[in-house]
C-alpha cells in the first residue's frame, strides 16, 4: 500500500473531532495530507493533537513539513453547511480534496431514538446524521470532482451492526445497513469517473461513541466486553487500507475491523456474518428499558 500519493493532497473528514475519524485524520496528516475537520467541536484529544503538531492559528495548524489541519464547525444535518465545506477547503488549501470521509455518526441511545420519540422534526436525527449526511456529502463531492475533472475517494463508516438487528437500537442498526449498501452501490463510479467508494465496518470500539455517555456505558460489561474492543487507531488503519490498497480491495469493499486484531471483507451475499465478539453483552440491560417503555405505554402513561 503506497501512501506517498497522499503527500501534498487533501481531505475533508466529517466527525474528525473525535474517535475513529480523528484517528483517520492523524493517519492522513502523517502521510502528508492536508485535512479539513468538519465537526461541531473538537474533543480534548483532538485539541491536544493539534496543539502538539506545530504552530497554530485560529483556524489551522501547520506541521513542520507544511502539512496543515484546519477545523470548520459544521452541522452535518444542514446541507448548505456540507456544500460550504468545499468552499472552505478551497480557501484553505486550494482545489478539491482527494479524500472525503463521511465519519460523523450517532449511536442509540445517546441521541433521540425510536423508543423515546423526542425528535421534533419530520425525520429522526440519527438518520439525518448517519444516513442522509453521508449520502448527500457523497453527491456533493462527486459533483465537485467531476467539475474539476479529478479523481477522488469517498470513505464511509459502517458497522458490524449492519449485519445484525436489535430492538434496543432499532434506528442505529438500519442506518448502518444503509451505509454498507450505499458503499457497494457507488462501486461502479470507479470505472465511470475514477471515484472510489469504500467503507470500514468496526465492531466494538473504544471511542467516545461507546464511552461518551452513561446511556451507552450501561450497555457495556467491563468484564466481558473489554477484551472485545478495537482501538480507533486499528479501525482507522483498516479504513486507510480499504481506501488506498487497490490491489486487495476493489471499489465498494466493506472491510470489517474487530478487536483485538481482526479484519475481513464483508461479502454482499452469503456472508457468514460478524463474529460473536462484536456483540455488546450489556444490551440485555437495554432490553429492560424497552420493556419499561412497553409497560408505560400499555398503562397509558405516555401520550
TrEMBL record:
Record Pfam families: adh_short
Protein name: 3-hydroxybutyrate dehydrogenase
Keywords per UniProt: Oxidoreductase
Similarity field: Belongs to the short-chain dehydrogenases/reductases (SDR) family.
One GO MF term: oxidoreductase activity, acting on the CH-OH group of donors, NAD or NADP as acceptor
UniProt superkingdom: Eukaryota
InterPro entries given in the database record: NAD(P)-bd_dom_sf, SDR_fam
Keyword Oxidoreductase: yes
Entry-linked PANTHER family: 15-HYDROXYPROSTAGLANDIN DEHYDROGENASE [NAD(+)]
Source species: Cladophialophora immunda
Amino acid at each position: 500500500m503506497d501512501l506517498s500519493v497522499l503527500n501534498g493532497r487533501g481531505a475533508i473528514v466529517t466527525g474528525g473531532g473525535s474517535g475513529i475519524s480523528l484517528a483517520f485524520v492523524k493517519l492522513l496528516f502523517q502521510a502528508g495530507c492536508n485535512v479539513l475537520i468538519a465537526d461541531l467541536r473538537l474533543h480534548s484529544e483532538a485539541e491536544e493533537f493539534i496543539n502538539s503538531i506545530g504552530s497554530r492559528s485560529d483556524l489551522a495548524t501547520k506541521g513542520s513539513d507544511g502539512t496543515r489541519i484546519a477545523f470548520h464547525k459544521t452541522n452535518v444535518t444542514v446541507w448548505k453547511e456540507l456544500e460550504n465545506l468545499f468552499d472552505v477547503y478551497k480557501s484553505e488549501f486550494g482545489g478539491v480534496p482527494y479524500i472525503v470521509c463521511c465519519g460523523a455518526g450517532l449511536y442509540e441511545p445517546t441521541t433521540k431514538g425510536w423508543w423515546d420519540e423526542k425528535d421534533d422534526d419530520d425525520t429522526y436525527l440519527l438518520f439525518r446524521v448517519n444516513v442522509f449526511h453521508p449520502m448527500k456529502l457523497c453527491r456533493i463531492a462527486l459533483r465537485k470532482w467531476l467539475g474539476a475533472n479529478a479523481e477522488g475517494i469517498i470513505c464511509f463508516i459502517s458497522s458490524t451492526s449492519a449485519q445484525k438487528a436489535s430492538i434496543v437500537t432499532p434506528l442505529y442498526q438500519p442506518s448502518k445497513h444503509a451505509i454498507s449498501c450505499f458503499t457497494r452501490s457507488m462501486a461502479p463510479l470507479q470505472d465511470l469517473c475514477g471515484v472510489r467508494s469504500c467503507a470500514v465496518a468496526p465492531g466494538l470500539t473504544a471511542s467516545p461513541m461507546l464511552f461518551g455517555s452513561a446511556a451507552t456505558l450501561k450497555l457495556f460489561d467491563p468484564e466481558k466486553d473489554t477484551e472485545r474492543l478495537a482501538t480507533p487507531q486499528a479501525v482507522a488503519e483498516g479504513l486507510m487500507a480499504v481506501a488506498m490498497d487497490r490491489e486487495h480491495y476493489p471499489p465498494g469493499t466493506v472491510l470489517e475491523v474487530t478487536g483485538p486484531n481482526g479484519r475481513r471483507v464483508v461479502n454482499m451475499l452469503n456472508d457468514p456474518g460478524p463474529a460473536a465478539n462484536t456483540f455488546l453483552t450489556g444490551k440485555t440491560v437495554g432490553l429492560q428499558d424497552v420493556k419499561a417503555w412497553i409497560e408505560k405505554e400499555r398503562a397509558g402513561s405516555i401520550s
